[in-house]
Task: structure prediction
Amino acid sequence: MAARAPLPLYRNGPLLSRIVAALFGGYALAALTSVATLALPLSRSEAVLTGMLLSFLVYAGAVVWVFAVRSARRAWAGLLVAAAPLLLAAWPYWHGAAP
Result:
């Protein structure tokens, strides 16, 4: 029995893109969520704990989102749209301008 030839990249590309989006995009979204919770009106320790707990939910939700949408392009777009407000909320905490 002859071995099957591997599928070309144009067939595996969207799947590989979704896997990268789930792994790295989901991680980035979870990290942004964790830092953005420092903007909440909580004490610093409560905000850190809340951010840590929320990051697990966000990461799991991002992975489900990436594989639930119709295309890899929509998966990346959804991650970017979700990351934009989190990035704005987390920006002062990365640059030392936080209250």
Notes: The mean pLDDT is 90. The two ends are 69 Å apart (CA to CA). The first helix runs from residue 9 to 36. The chain has one domain: 15-94.
